[in-house]
Amino acid sequence: MADAAAPALPAAPEAAAFRGGRSGQAPLTWGQRAIWHAIRRTAPNDHYFNIGRVLSLADRGSPVSVAACTDALGRLVERHEALRTRLLLSGAGPSQDLKDAGVLPVTVVRASGPGSAADEAEALLGRLSATRFDYAGEWPLRAGLVAVDGQVSHAVLVLCHLAADGHAAEVLVRDLRLLARRGSAGRPPRANPLDLAREQHGEAGQRRGTAAIAHWEAGYRAAPPTMFAVRAAEPRTPRFWTGRIVSAALARAVGAVAAAHRVSGSTVLLAASAALAAAGEGHRTAAVMPIVGNRTAPAHRDLVSTLSQDGLFVLDLDRAAGQEPAGGAGPVFTDLLPAAYRSALRAYRAAVYDPVEWDALGERLRAEYGTEVHPYCCFNDMRLVERPAPAGPAPSPAELERLRGRTRFGFPATQDKVACRYCLHITEEDDALAVSLTADTAYLPPEVIRAHLYAMEELVVASASGRPPLVTRLRDLLDEAREGRA
Question: Measured on CA atoms in the order 410, 412, 414, 419, is the torsion positive or negative?
């Protein structure tokens, strides 16, 4: 017990020297331009975009010394050009500046024993993540090590979102483990941000970008100018609240509905969030911006960069469900899934574009409509791999109801500024789905945030139980959830 309670020794600085194969400059990639746009809109609270990971090195394999792990960090930076690329700001606009050599600071915390090491790693992650990056003056990686008796128990990585997205962070964790354990991470990556930027700004890239912008314009014209147009309350302080539901019942139900209707679980969740957002605001068409990974090309699967961009998913609830009532009762939620699947594919295909052209489209439509045109409604399925539904029969209503008894809800975080009004994030926690909704309390007060999450659980669980709710009853689901009856 004394081991777990004893304080760590003060952090000490180390340094990882690196020397890569080349240097150079290029425009920002489209993914970098997209996140830079979001960073500027969120500043000075843009530490919100920092990506943190903790790698345990005490679980298996030979011990790794501080010196060996520091050396592995240097080779990690050499391997991935994004980690030695800084933002270059000039009158012509931001660009990327790749350096061939440098030194990465490494913070080392010496824990008093194994029992406290994991807590020290989490604390170090919090400290390294808490401040915004100096995009032009700082390497886009902050690294730390937790050591016990000279051996590294945990490595901590905090990444600037200009250099990496969630998938890239997992690539870095994998490669650092291999470099620390084996001294090699295999063949070098097949692509890099510098060459990708030059490709995107070339002729073929521009053609693809133009087609994507045409998709956005058509979708904008089919949907409401924004999903959340009317303030519902005085904003709280801090203004943005995050609600989080952890539901094993939702995880089982999503898999069952997806299998029954031959769509992905992500499509089920996207359709549910879109339909509820539309119903709650009185819209018959939903417009949602899913975050798209853009890693279908084989060369991009191990590329450390920020490739993710917003897509535009548009779902006409009346047309998707069909105009003719089914059995006289009317269309139900699962009737939306075929159209939702097709709309999701279109959104994914059109999620690679130049954000400068995207901004120009928004300005043109703002002038035409006399109001801002932007959904302010985002969906981010952060799972790298979607688990298949378990083999065997679909869950029974009784099983799902038992699982709902384990559902947990809370408000784990608040923030002063986020550049959206509704941001839904999907992750996993053991056998449960963890769904977080960060929202502007001027448009979605805390009780409405809670209602959206519980209504999503009810919508999908009821659908998996053979009683999918009527599309016309989705607003009722929100009202019932708000009153605690869902």
Answer: negative
Can you give the pLDDT at residue 454? 98
Ranges for all domains in the chain classified under CATH 3.30.559.10: 2-182+189-198
| pLDDT tens track for 390-400 | 777 889 999 99
CATH class name, domain 2-182+189-198? alpha beta
Contact 125, 156 (CB under 8 A): yes
pLDDT tens readout for residues 367-417: 999 999 999 999 999 887 777 777 778 899 999 999 999 999 999 999 998
Would you say 116 and 8 are in contact if contact means Cβ atoms under 8 Å apart? Answer: yes
The pTM assigned to this predicted structure is 0.87
* Beta strand 51-56 pairing with 151-159: antiparallel
Q: 9 or 89: whose pLDDT is higher?
A: 89
pLDDT confidence bin for 41, thresholds 50/70/90: confident
All CATH 3.30.559.30 domain ranges of the chain, comma separated, are 204-482
Q: Are 146 and 113 in contact (CB under 8 A)?
A: no
CA distance linking residue 400 with residue 485, whole number of Å:
17
Task: Give the amino acid at 278.
Answer: A
Q: Superfamily for 204-482? A: Nonribosomal peptide synthetase, condensation domain (3.30.559.30)
Q: How far apart are alpha carbons 291 and 286 in whole angstroms? A: 16
> Residue 2: its pLDDT value, please?
35
The angle, 0 to 180 degrees and rounded to 10, between the axes of the packed helices 397-404 and 248-261 is 150
